[in-house]
Amino acid sequence: MNMRLIILFIATITLVWGGNFSDGMRAYRAQNYEKAKEAFEKAVEEDGAVQAHYFLGLLYLKGLGTTKNRLKAKNHFELAAQYGNARARCYLAEIYLKEHKKSRAVSLLKEGLKDGAQECENIAKENKISL
Question: I need a surface site. Which of 63, 96, 119, 129 has the fewest CB within 10 A?
Fold first, then answer.
């Protein structure tokens, strides 16, 4: 009986996380950003895959597969950061720097770096910020 529950649990996880988010990752790695955007949007809407917000933020921030949109990028990074994505904090800090909110940006950079996100150190160096 326990083996059936384990198999059902694994099958459920595979269906939920193996679908849209995985499709988005494959498309992102293949640099098919339009397809990645569609898959990540579905992952968020249909599967509740909160980490897809990070990749949507990147796509909007950099204009990959879509038009650059700092507000949409910021919204997606904020959601990803709320769920513990350290790299989202780095890019959110980058947006705050462009909005002239340096103290908030520095705080996010420190948090992200503390959690192991190398991007935070790179963004700090680019903006001549000592962490």
Answer: 63
